[in-house]
Structures are given as structure tokens and as C-alpha cells.
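Obj.: predict assembly geometry.
Materials: sequence records (below).
Method: joint structure prediction, all chains together.
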Amino acid sequence: MVLSCKEVWRAISDYIDREVSQEIRREIEAHLAQCRHCAALVDSTRNIVILLADDRLFTVPVGFSERLRRRLAAEIGNEKT
Amino acid sequence: MPDPRSEQDLIQLVLSGRPEYFYELVQPYERRVFRAAYGLLRNEADAEDVVQEALLKALRKLSTFRGEARFSTWLLRIAVNEARMRLRARRWDYASVSIQDDEGSEYVPLLLANWREVPSVVLEQREVREQIEKALAELSAEQREILILRDVGGLNTEEAASALGISIPSVKTRLLRARLRMRDLLAPHFRSAPRWQERAGRRRRSWF
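Observations (raw C-alpha cells):
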């Protein structure tokens, strides 16, 4: 069975998450080896997933941890008194 | 990741009347919770506020944490609910709901750019972060939530389904659409920035 481009697009997310069966995985890879456009689509979508998971995206503001710690300490202090 | 035993010990300590250990318990996750809140709200002050409120709530209701979910998932759920309440107050943010999430329409990639490798150094550039924020703003609220929970918060499909109260197939469909939309929105910017590609040439690394 040969997958169409559209079938590959629908499976992209599961493929990136490794949530497809071995069989589908092999079929997708066979398609990607033949189809430059789908290969670029898969790679660029995977890049998005990688960028979103990167700790350096949306870094915490300066003093964030200290303010959080103080706020928690204040709350704990209130409860104890 | 802290080992589960010490996390469990910290939870027990807090519950047995030592709340001063709570910060130690949540500290490994504070950044991830912030990133998720920021992704939903796209405002630093609001996101920080949401993290503080969510963690105070987590402290107050720690006894309801049953250990069925991962502790980080439990914290993220509280933070997402808090962010949702904040978004409800900002009505304009829901103006775009369901415009993008047109389940009936067939996806066609906007631009099949040859964007095969992006070095991690791109994230050190402010423009890239800004483009990602802009793209997130373009998503529907539903798409944004699923993307934040799965790809920023690190929840798995089952955890995201339970956090959002939707089925696993719905999580998968929404996530697919959200990722493809982000990709369509971002790919043209990456392609039109030759200096990132030059850097990619110098510092090549494979992603997986």
C-alpha cells in the first residue's frame, strides 16, 4: 500500500510523537524518501515541536523565583498565625 | 526529574504540617508552569501572577492530590484553569474561537518551504520568540490550549485528554491542526531569515 500525501499529513503529529505502528511508520518513511515536500513538512513541523519544548522559550522574568518564594512564605505565615 | 520517592516525601512533609517544604516540592516545575501560563496569556506579569495563584491553590488543596496523575500534571492543570479564568476576564481573547478549528475542512500546507533544520541557537534570538508568540496568538483558544499542554507542558495524550475533559482522538486531531498551523505560520519567517541558515551550517546538529 502506498500512502498519499494527504494521508501522511494526517499522520504527521502521531508520527512525530512515535505513536504510529511499525507498519505505518515504515510506509510513512517510504513516502518521505520519495516526496521532498512531505519530508520538508515533517521536518519543519518537528522543529516546531522541538522549539516549543525548549526551556529557553518563554524564560521566567528576573526575580520570578524569589517573588514566588516570598508569596508562598507569606501565605504560610498567615496560615500559621 | 526528581525521584518520585523524594517528591512523595515532600508531599507528606507538607501535609503533616510542614508547609515550608512546599517550595522545594514545586521548584522543579516552576519554570514549566510559567512557560505554559505564558503561552496561554502571552503577558509576563499575568503569567507570573497565574503561577503564584496556581501554586497557592496547589498548596491549599494538596491533600486532594491522589498520586494518580504525575504531580507536574496536577500542577499544570491547576495553572491552566487559572489561566482560563484570567482569559475569560479578557473577552477579546476568545473572539477568534472556532474560526480556525473548522473540523470539516481539509488541511493543505500553506507553503512547502525547505525548512529542514533549525539550530537551537535560533531561540536565543528575540525575533524568533516574538514570531512564536505571534503565531500562538493566531491559533484558536482550543488549539492553543492543546499545544501548550502537550508541547510546552509536556503532558502526554491521555493526560491532556483528562485535563481538558475531551477524548483522546479529539486531543490528537486538535494537536495535529495546531502543530500544522504553527508550522504554516512560522515556516515562512524561518525561510526568509538567511542568517539563521548560515548559523545552521556552522553549528549543525540533528534533532533526533
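Conclusions so far: Chain A has a mean pLDDT of 90.
To do: check interface contacts against the pulldown list.
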